[in-house]
Amino acid sequence: GAVVSQHPSRVICKSGTSVKIECRSLDFQATTMFWYRQFPKKSLMLMATSNEGSKATYEQGVEKDKFLINHASLTLSTLTVTSAHPEDSSFYICSARGDWGQETQYFGPGTRLLVL
Amino acid sequence: AQSVTQLDSHVSVSEGTPVLLRCNYSSSYSPSLFWYVQHPNKGLQLLLKYTSAATLVKGINGFEAEFKKSETSFHLTKPSAHMSDAAEYFCVVSEKGSNYQLIWGAGTKLIIKP
Fold first, then answer.
1. B97: nearest CA in chain A?
2. Does chain B have fewer CB atoms within 10 Å around its N or its C terminus?
3. Do A42 and B49 touch (CB under 8 A)?
4. Phi, psi of A86 (to 5 degrees)
5. Among the partner residues B46, B100, B107, nearest to A102 by beta-carbon distance
6. Which positions ≥6 away from B113 have C-beta within 8 Å?
7. Could you tell me if A54 lies within 8 Å of chain B, comparing CB atoms?
8. pLDDT tens-place string over residues B26-76
9. What's the count of helices (H) and strands (E) in chain A, helices before strands?
């Protein structure tokens, strides 16, 4: 149980285009979803926290207009990287937690974004 | 404020020998502690977690960790390393006071020598 999927697993796009990444909780309702970014050989950096039906809370230094997050349902959150640039290339990971155990997050497999 | 320190960026052991990955934390409240593993180009997998029950926690793949409040440590161990254990390991802390936000250690790369 507690499976989280991400789509796509890998995406290559041209500079200036927008890319949408989906995060789904497959077998539970995720009241809260998180988006992380991981640089090569580094730990995870929390970008934002989203609760279903409300606006996402962004961490300091993360541009909310560049990284649009939507959490429209209890099983789906999307991250859209708008007007992507090469410096946005990274590994993006989502996680989700249900309402039964707030201390545990379940992670998606990640999406590798390469902006040319 | 919470923080996590993984004392070793790399640990190299021979196959069949014990593994010790060290983690120290600081927390204002009673923390929850986790170990996650990330294999190359793979997602994160929860190895084990401590949430105020037994201080010795057993996880998957033969790993275990002991919560020692007096030492503010949560070291990860395994009696006998296997080649498939080669991966990046992250120690993570969360606490109720910060709405269970996860604070990540820098990671320890475990290298297994044949």
1. A103
2. C
3. no
4. -55, -35
5. B100
6. B12, B13, B14, B15
7. no
8. 987 788 899 999 988 778 889 999 987 789 999 999 999 999 999 999 999
9. 0, 11
